[in-house]
Amino acid sequence: MNYKELKELVEKRYSVRKFEDKKVEKEKILEVLDAARFAPSAHNYQPWHFVVLTEEDMLEKIQSVYEPQWFKAAPAVIVALVDHDKSWTRDDGKDHSDVDIGITVDHLTLAATANDLGTCWVCAFDAEKCKEVLELPENMEPVTLIPIGYPKYPEAKQKIREDLDTMVSWEGYLEK
Ligand SMILES: Cc1cc2nc3c(=O)[nH]c(=O)nc-3n(C[C@H](O)[C@H](O)[C@H](O)COP(=O)(O)O)c2cc1C
Fold first, then answer.
1. Domain for residue 26, yes or no?
2. Could you say which DSSP state residue 24 is in?
3. Ligand 1 centroid to 168 CA: how many Å?
4. The model's pTM
5. 10 CB less than 6 Å from ligand 1?
6. Ligand 1 centre from 165 Cα, in Å?
7. In a domain, 31, yes or no
8. Which of 16, 50, 111, 174 is within CB 3.0–4.6 Å of 151 for a Cys-Cys bond?
């Protein structure tokens, strides 16, 4: 893959909140998870776990932790968990699990896009309730829900992003 193709892929990915009424093939879900598997992580501890929900009863349970109506149309939901017993903590106490999960989920969402699937990060959910419905042990924290399915609209409408000048300074930090 060259830069142009990579750029097209990252620009194509967007937060999909409208899905076709169509199941996602298990092979495709396994492919996106396999891309997630190759993400870098602090000390290569790979402190993550993914719970894939596709059955009606489990989808209903996960829908109870995030209310918006659009979420109910997702044919599958992947719950990304961090294992706090496995993640790397720096000497000053900073646990890097959020960094690690961010990278692996980004791999996942880009692989999904490459597989013509749509995803959306969802973090505004009830994490305590999620732990209950999934019967998670204390060390496992659900960080994000990733609804996944075939998007109604395959292309992003418009990407609202700051330009490079605003987000980059060279040879030292310059307040913009
Ligand atoms: C850490 C994180 C948490 C997010 N949580 C939610 C959420 O709870 N609900 C939602 O609809 N979108 C959520 N989003 C999606 C963002 O709103 C979206 O990524 C952002 O507006 C940029 O749009 P784009 O993904 O289409 O490029 C979240 C995104 C990130 C990265």
1. yes
2. P
3. 22
4. 0.97
5. no
6. 23
7. yes
8. 16
Q: Within a domain: residue 170? A: no
Cα of 123 from ligand 1 centre, angstroms: 8
Ligand 1 centroid to Cα of residue 124, in Å, is: 9
User: Tokens 């999909």 label which residue?
Assistant: 16
Range of the domain at 147: 12-154
Print pLDDT tens along the chain (176 aa). Answer: 999 999 999 999 999 999 999 999 999 999 999 999 999 999 999 999 999 999 999 999 999 999 999 999 999 999 999 999 999 999 999 999 999 999 999 999 999 999 999 999 999 999 999 999 999 999 999 999 999 999 999 887 888 999 999 999 999 999 87
Q: Are 60 and 7 within 8 A, CB to CB?
A: no
Per the listing, tokens 């997702």 go with: 74
Other C-beta atoms lying within 10 Å of the C-beta of residue 46:
17
Q: Is 71 in the pocket of ligand 1 (CB under 6 A)?
A: no
How many separate domains does the chain show? 1
DSSP characters for 29-93? HHHHHHHHHT---GGG---EEEEEE-SHHHHHHHHTTS--GGGGG-SEEEEEEEETTTS-B-TTS
The domain that holds 26 is classified in CATH as: 3.40.109.10
